[in-house]
Amino acid sequence: MKLKSLSLSLVAATLLAGLGVAPAIAQNTNTPGIERTQQEIRARIQQGIASGHITQQEAQELYQQERSIQFREMRFKADGNATPQEREQIRRELDAMRADVERKLANDRFSTRQNSTPGIDQREENIGARIDRGIASGQITRAEARRLHQRERDIQRLESRYKSDGKVTQAERKKLQRSLKALNEDVNRLLHNERRAIR
């Protein structure tokens, strides 16, 4: 009888201890901000598919990237404690992914051949991808990335204005190329940790 009573007491103590620990674990693995960002990114991808700015192939690649981030997040949470450093890594990766989605949404895929700028478009995409990699690796801060992406958007708007009359002149192309070269140099400096005031 005593043995049975002792066993029940141990089971009850274990259950009570478990109930006390469960909320603490949940609290240390709760990431509502990260989950909200993931939902926002998924919604933007869906908007891009609906508008034709994101192709099915691009959407599949983006969803694969999102799954990789989710698996990493689950791994971080598996021990019951997502550390501030782990959370920051996930946020950086999501920031980079969000920037990639926004760049695709801003890309004008519907331009006609006479005013297309494939070399410039490819260079914009390459610079944007390098900024995103810098965010993900921690070499570029969020504040720096915001300024760089703002300049990237300014160049894209200028390009759209040049295309609006149906033809991009040689002088306009040169101006775009100069702006992209300056932006690329600033990205290089940050990636090589040569920090000084960027334009």
Question: Your description of this structure?
Answer:
By secondary structure, the chain is mainly alpha-helical. The chain has 2 domains: 13-106; 110-199. The chain contains 7 helices and no strands. The chain has helices at 2-29, 32-51, 56-77, 84-106, 118-137, 142-163, 170-191.
How do the helices and strands line up, and which of them pair or pack?
Elements: H1 2-29, H2 32-51, H3 56-77, H4 84-106, H5 118-137, H6 142-163, H7 170-191
Helix pairs in contact: 2-3, 2-4, 3-4, 4-5, 4-6, 5-6, 5-7, 6-7
Biggest sheet layout: none
Q: What value does the average pLDDT take?
A: 77
Distance between the termini: 81 Å
Global structural class: mainly alpha
Assembly classification: single chain
* Secondary structure: helix percent: over 70%
Low-confidence regions? 1-27, 110-114
Count of spatially separate domains: 2
Q: Which strand-content bin applies to the residues?
A: under 5%
> Count of helical segments?
7
Radius of gyration: 24 Å
Q: What sort of overall outline do the alpha carbons produce when their principal axes are compared? A: globular
**Secondary-structure element sequence?**
HHHHHHH
Number of strands: 0
Outline of the structure:
The protein is an all-alpha fold. It is 79% helix and 0% strand.
Characteristic key phrases:
199 residues; mainly alpha; 2 domains; 79% helix; disordered N terminus
